[in-house]
Fold this protein.
Amino acid sequence: QVQLVESGGGLVQAGDSLRLSCAASGGTFTNYAMAWFRQAPGREREFVAAIHWSGSSSNYADSLKGRFTISRDNAKNTVYLQMNSLKPEDTAVYYCAARLRSRNNYGYWGQGTQVTVSS
């Protein structure tokens, strides 16, 4: 069973960049597709981006394409989310999630990391 720990959140200004990391342990990392979700206050959790277990493909929420980039380093058991041109509406708790290749749902979640973007 994989455990996920996010890091890299913080308080930034609009237009800044931030890179989140999610370190995985306790499982074979390449058995999992990985994703980032976020949840803003008073809103439902929403999908941000996902990446294939091999890193060969990724997909994004339409509204975030071009600003956010998901990547993974399978040698380091880590997935990243590079966020550029941040906006106040990007303020949320960002969660890392893992999905076994044989499953359709993300069954493993990190504790989340807060990202706050000031205007």
Observations:
- The chain has a mean pLDDT of 97.
